[in-house]
Amino acid sequence: MSDRIIELVNLTKRYGSFTAVNQLNLTIRKGEIFGLLGPNGAGKSTTILMMLGLTDPTSGLVNVCGINSTTHPVEVKRRVGYLPEDVGFYDNRTGFENLMYTARLNSIPDKEAEQKAEQLLIKVGLADALKKKAGKYSRGMRQRLGLADVLIKNPEVIILDEPTSGIDPKGVKEFLELIVEMSRDEDLTVLFASHNLHQVQQVCDRVGIFVNGNLLGEGTIDTLSQELFKNHPYIIEAGFSKNASDIPDGKEMNYTVDWLQGILKPIDGIKAITLNNKVFQIESSRDTTSEIARFIVQSGATLNYLNKKEYGLDDIYYQYFEGGDNHG
Amino acid sequence: MDNPTTQAMTLNESRQSKAHYLPAAPHLFGNKNGVNHPFWVIVQKEISDHVRSWRFIILIAIIALTCIGSMYTALTNIGHAMKASDVQNTFFFLKLFTVSDGTMPSFFVFISFLGPLLGISLGFDAINSEHNRGTLSRVLAQPIHRDYLINAKFTGALIVISIMFFALGFLVMGLGLVTIGIPPTVEEFWRIVFFILLSILYVAFWLNLSILFSVRFRQPATAALAGIAIWLFLTVFYPLIVNLIMKGLTPTQMDMNTAHQMFNLEELRLTLMRILPNQLFSDATTTILMPSIRSLGPLTMEQVYGTIPGPLPLGQSLLLVWPQVTGLIAATITCFVLSYVSFMKREIRSR
To answer: In this complex, which of A74, A87, A112 lies closest to B143 when CB atoms are compared?
Structure first.
């Protein structure tokens, strides 16, 4: 089997005139944790449904584990574990019974399944709730039971659709750690679909950004930010103290854009200076942070705050989502 | 061997045996190493869900009570029935199911009344409740074909109904046997078996209708109401409408020329009524349980002339109800096909 465990080629899904997924090309390699990042309604879930053969693509090809999901959904579902968004269980059965049902649907012999179910429930931290009715589980517990439910069939790939929505921060942290641990232990490929960029940044090796059915960018977070901001200037933010006692010679300073421009004139590469909410933003074509600091201090002004802006996932996110129209 | 080692070993084994799960599931009617086919796994779960549910316990209580009630009236009145006519005495045992003194309906009337309720209540939340609980997408992400779920829902409920009806029918027979002390003849026994099968078929129709609603409507309450509305319409309003139409068509003045017309009108009325599944069911059961019935439509004097009054043999009774049975089966299959198609075409999203 090739290294490419999930392969989408020109995948398109239309509902009437609405295009949910547009000409999607994506390859996910074996063993990686891939984050599919996009706002609600971007077409993430639709793509996942097509991977599982639960809905048919309008055109294009989906291969999971080298099997065509559209024509052989059952073979694919034998190898892929899927945790849907807001997963539900049979409330009148215990967590253990719910797992056993899934195991039986996967034709796992009962004895083996019982062992495995117990192991998994201990692993996801539900050992105490083993014999508790699933209806009494909290949201976080349900999600963890969902993870056990996905893993009981010994999958090669697990697909998690918004697995952390509605869990408290502590629960999210534990859950994400669990995913990383499981994927390492069992050598799993994980597809993690979420709109929460910080969680994706925490666990994922590679990220695909998905807006309005289009895949806008794909790669590690570093390459994404480099690619996206390579033509953008450096932005250095500077703030000054207004407090009179901080000013050494007692002379009132008038912090204006013109004043700062005067001070920084000797530095070449500075393009523009703007005053934004008492913070100066200095646009520069190269990294001039240290020079700016030197000149300002020499001028006698009290520098309170100086920051070179780093492009994190947040900026990538907004760059894509807010300005999605320009880039898309 | 101490505990950690065992656990490590089993983990290791399960890792190695990854390929072991991958072969296909056992054959539909097979059992490989104690592993059932996924279809029967779902059926098993459906049955245990039904049997454990309060809804089913309440239904069984209602039906058991009415059954006891109708048995009681039948047993207290069976003496009069025996004296009343000699011809039918040969089918004395069947009277247990049909005799009534007018205060309380007989067993088969009860079944025709409660059957729809049973069918609707076992099916109205089949698909939509799974969807609302968020279990539908989880179950369909398992390696099963989508139609397994809807087929298993139907099969599970049908098995529950069948066991219940056979148990009830045989209990009535046993109780009758103990109280009146006359054993049923072979023919009577088969007639009762056919009656039970017919009842199951009738409930299966309502079951499928409510499964259809459970696929169509997102809310279980809407599906249940739709089922009950159809049931009320068919049992109460439709006969009223037919009567109204017939009243309008019937000539006011009677003469010899209208005799033929009257005959045609009666035929028309019966045709209109036989669209109803409950009419089909009651026609069929009456014929099966009362062997003296020789025709389900109007007979002219010429047709009756020369016949010897007497009960029909079982084969002839079955021939007589063949159209009714076919109609019921057709209605059941229509409902099933509609729900099947609409379920297969549906896109399954979580909640």
So the answer is: A74
Query: A191 to each of A5, A159, B160, how far by Cα in Å?
Result: 11, 5, 41
Instruction: Supply B226's token pair.
Output: 């739709």
Task: Please check whether residue B139 touches A, CB under 8 A.
Answer: yes
How many other CB atoms are found less than 10 A from the CB of residue A250? 7
The burial of A165, by beta-carbon neighbours within 10 Å (0-12 exposed, 13-18 middle, 19 or more buried), is given as middle
Residues of A in contact with B348 (CB under 8 A): 49, 54-55
The amino acid occupying position B281 is: F
DSSP state of B244: H
Per-residue pLDDT tens digits of chain A, which is 328 residues long: 457 889 999 999 998 888 889 899 999 998 889 999 888 888 888 999 999 988 889 999 999 998 999 999 999 999 999 999 888 899 999 999 999 999 999 989 989 999 999 999 998 888 888 889 999 998 888 989 999 999 999 899 999 998 888 788 888 888 899 888 888 888 889 999 988 878 888 888 898 888 888 888 888 877 776 776 666 667 788 887 665 455 555 455 567 788 888 888 888 778 788 887 778 888 877 778 888 888 888 877 777 888 877 666 666 667 666 654 444 3
Strands A4-15 and A59-64: antiparallel
Cα pseudo-dihedral A177, A182, A185, A186, rounded to 10: -160
Residue of B nearest to A159 (CA): B141
Which of A54, A105, A153 shows the shortest C-beta gap to B41? A105
pLDDT at B26: 67
CB atoms within 10 A of CB A13: 23
Phi, psi of A174 (to 5 degrees): -60, -40
Q: State the sign of the Cα–Cα–Cα–Cα dihedral B53, B54, B56, B61.
A: positive
Residue B318: which of B346, B341, B293 has the closest Cα? B293
Give all domains of chain A, ordered by start, each with its CATH number. 4-228 (3.40.50.300), 233-308 (3.30.70.100)
Structural contact between residues A328 and A214, judged by C-beta atoms closer than 8 angstroms: yes
Identify the closest residue of chain A to B148 by CA–CA distance. A105
pLDDT over threshold 90, residue B246: no
Residues B321, B283 contacting (CB under 8 angstroms): yes
Q: Whose structure tokens read 């590679």?
A: A206
- Who contacts A97 (Cβ-Cβ below 8 Å, separation ≥6)? A90
For testing the chain B interface, which of A107, A137, A145 should be mutated: the one with the most B CBs within 10 Å? Answer: A107
Amino acid, single-letter form, for residue A102: T
Taking the CA atoms of chain A, what radius of gyration do you get in angstroms? 26
Strand partners, B276: none
Rounded Cα distance between B30 and B2, Å, is 38
pLDDT tens figures, B169-181: 898 888 888 888 8
Work out the mean pLDDT of chain B and round it to a whole number: 82
The CA distance from B74 to B287, in Å, is 19
Selecting from B11, B143, B347 the residue whose C-beta is nearest the C-beta of A78 gives B143
